[in-house]
Amino acid sequence: MSRIVYVNGAYLPEEEACVSVFDRGFLMADGVYEVTSVLDGRLIDFDGHARRLQRSLDALEMANPLGRDELLEIHRELVRRNGLDEGMVYLQVTRGAADRDFVYPEGARPTVVLFTQAKALSDNPAAATGISVISIPDIRWGRRDIKTVQLLYPSMGKMMARQAGADDAWMVEDGYVTEGTSNNAHIVKDGRIVTRHLGNDILHGITRAAVLRFAADNAVEIEERPFTLDEAKAADEAFITSASAFVMPVVRIDDTPLGDGRPGPVAGRLRAIYLAEMRRAAV
Ligand code: PMP
Predict the structure, then answer these.
(1) Which residues, judged by CB distance below 6 Å to any ligand atom, belong to the binding site of ligand 1?
(2) Protein residue with least CA distance to atom 2, ligand 1
(3) 4-118 CATH choice from 3.30.470.10, 3.40.50.20, 3.60.15.10, 2.40.128.20
(4) CA 53 to centroid of ligand 1, rounded, Å
(5) Is 233 annotated in the active site?
(6) N or C: which end of the chain has fewer CB within 10 A?
(7) How far apart are CA 171 and CA 46, in angstroms?
(8) 83-137, pLDDT tens digit by residue?
(9) Residue nearest atom 9 of ligand 1, based on CA coordinates
């Protein structure tokens, strides 16, 4: 079934949508992206994603071709045109097409692409069983806080997980967990959430921010600091957060089951609160 996608101002059937072979997103991964979830046909935490998009663009000195309101309208129009009830809207902005050169081109027009993906997100059966992760070295670049389309290592990490019979991978640097391949990593010990602090080492997850806010509102203690892989394996529970997984319990790290090997109460409660609050605030 053909979707309607957005490319540089036009809504087109996906077969007709195209970008230049000289696009710097294609040639140099010179582009940034956002993924916003849709529940009941409405956007989850849109403003968080719009703000982070601006932050990524600023870090790369890339012009923002669209304001927040225009961006919201395009998201909504795509949801409407594709009859999307549940799934995601993917947005990518690249520096645009120009003769291949390492130096940023002057006056290139940013390329803007958005498309929808239908997917069952809220009734994910993995939320009831929890997921397993393997640990892999974090060999990514030093600006993981910029949400670039440079996703080859995360993709390799997911393949390593699959080959090991696991669901995902947590990346480890100097003994400390940075984050998951496409999500933020959190552990729970004695009722307290331990999660890596923000910096250049991890993506500043929009879901992470919302979940920590809800945790604080519900009197759950939070420690923002690096935690080791050993500490994670000795935790009572663990979970990941991302715009499409929401809050997802982790029940095994490498060969070590966490707690009794079943999803823990903190993750379960936070998932329920997150879904309820975000559905209510959706646009
Ligand atoms: N870390 C990485 C490396 C990611 O790719 C993602 C998802 N894009 C996240 C964390 C989670 O971010 P968010 O909650 O904004 O989806």
Answers:
(1) 35, 179, 182-184, 203, 205-208, 241-243
(2) 182
(3) 3.30.470.10
(4) 12
(5) no
(6) N
(7) 27
(8) 999 999 999 999 999 999 999 999 899 999 999 999 999 999 999 999 999 999 9
(9) 183
Mutate to test the pocket of ligand 1, among 183, 195, 247 (most ligand atoms within 8 A of CB): 183
How do the domains of the chain map onto residue ranges? 4-118, 126-281
CB 229 within 8 A of CB 112: no
Percent of the chain at pLDDT exceeding 70: 100
pLDDT at residue 74, as a whole number: 98
- Taking only the tens place, the pLDDT of each residue in 237-276 is 999 999 999 999 999 999 999 999 999 999 999 999 999 9
